[in-house]
């Protein structure tokens, strides 16, 4: 029996439709939408292509776009079907050819249980119709999409091809061919046309396609056309001739031939039989539909309320999430605080400003970074090179002012020596200001570097200078810079020569530096994580072949995902939908380093933030505190040596449009010196001990010597689906907290077992919208532009974290901490034994 009508009105938000069914079968069909099938109760047989799956309770399976499939239902079952709009999903994931390897039967893994929980959260919202809001559904839908992307999505370069038997070029080519077929199957489509698009011969394409797919080109095209045609044949009233022509068949005879070969009967006979089957059940469906609808809803509600295994809190009206954790004090290990090793200070000329120096001094006094990174040290504004005589001479007076300031404040220089420009970005690919340095040839670089190093050694000693870092940036592997170039992706993408200019410059400069200071660390190249995986691997392999290797690899971590191909999908927002973007990218780079021979190379994230924008008001919100905390805790895996936050102060991004007190600058401090929630996050992180006791999804427990424990927890919220449908930075200051997946509180309970008995002092500090939020305080203040100095001082006092102290007597060797965290809140408990016993 065919069931094409949902038993409850589906939630239609362009991205997803949800259907709940009971004891229903669906004939073999195909559609563009990606389908997720989830069994709530009983069993369900699903046939995908020629393979049969038996799904039991809490099993799921994804049917990819255009895959023929059917459902055979047994008695007394309950299941849900979710249809994802292909174009919307493609836009959201920035990938044209979407395919999932997702079922809980053949691929059992720990991630499956988490996916089941997310599915049931979405079903809980679905059952609240019509009272559930669009935002609620989008929150849960985006969470589900993010999970699917993180663990089940086949990446573009690996789709449809056995990577062990096909090289990367062939994999890419096959993906492009199949995507072209899917986009144009309704049109007259020939082997000659596709060969022309791919710039290859027809005989070569014919052999290549048959080898990789096991089908001839015409067989594959007909299979795609037939899948769509069968769907229309059984579900619409269109004439068979119209169905044939609409799905790419040249005429009715061709459709009849292909259909009969596959189904062993003519289309008209197939349709009559299915219509009779449907009609025989029609009366029963009409009579029982209202009753079945109520029964299905009752069944689903009962399951979500009573099934303890699901762990879904069905009544979402309480608007909170409960998390309970138990940790063992004796399970501790040392770890390195990598996040406070370096802070980005900005362009060298900025550090000549007294305002900037005052703020850097404050940062260093309270947060204590090891290195201060800056660039533009040889920019024209530093007035170093004097060409007024026959032989160039150098004036390092301005450079020395910068270096003196850093050394005097116990900040070791992390110097970018290359031609990195100063860019103020309003949003991606939209610069407010761009400042470049004059071009230099290798010999000019060598002379300048040598003179600079001798100046530094004479002023600070060779022992001091050899502890500094020297980074050589390059735009050759920077895909953001490549947006400005006209280039052939198909011919240059795999060409090693594209990196040669950088390799030569790096080798030249590193040799010049190490000739004078052999132990100095020299690396590069400020690699952005938006670079293609194949290009990253190629770059590292080619670098490893060179005689001169870097002492460290520097990367820039911004969660930016850009579709670099010409596509009909127009993604409005370039920020990634993946909340774990940074963790996954670091793992990807470590894997690439291992494959290229750089297994032990030091990895430094010299820049990281939520966005490259200097006009993103999220930088001023409480969201930023949880974003920083989450990403720092997530990456306590030893993969990364330095993680340098971008930036120290909004003074770096001060420009003619920066009239307001806050304007979305990336700094930890506003230009007037008010501490932001991001600043407070680093303050709380600084209090963590050097011994890791435990960490989880939203907490970390550390220890200092003796019985001194630190518990840092946070209530992070990622963006909702609607946020990605608008360009970055378009939300107003009053909308900054309306773009997240939900506004649920987090009830968290952490018990540390195995501690000494006695009286403990418990100090609590927290940052949320009520305490320490410059954006919220400024909104409460009236968001005025004509702010006065005494009002700035008032806000400095107001924008401070909450603090309280209490005492508790422990007698069962366990400390239990309970807290209710508001959205975007970071909270620190410092627990110290005062009197043992």
Query: Span between N and C termini?
Result: 73 Å
CATH fold-level name of the largest domain: TIM Barrel
Number of helices: 23
Helix content: 25-40%
Radius of gyration: 30 Å
Mean pLDDT: 82
Tertiary shape: globular
CATH H-level name of the largest domain... which superfamily?
Glycosidases
Share of residues in strands = 15-25%
Strand order of the largest sheet: 11-12-15-18-19-20-21-22
Alpha-beta classification: alpha/beta
Architecture of the largest domain in CATH?
A: Alpha-Beta Barrel
Major β-sheet profile: 8 strands, parallel
- At the first level of CATH, the class of the largest domain is Alpha Beta
Regions with pLDDT < 50 over 5+ consecutive residues? 1-13, 156-169, 280-292, 308-319, 479-491, 565-571
- Domain module count: 3
The total strand number stands at 30
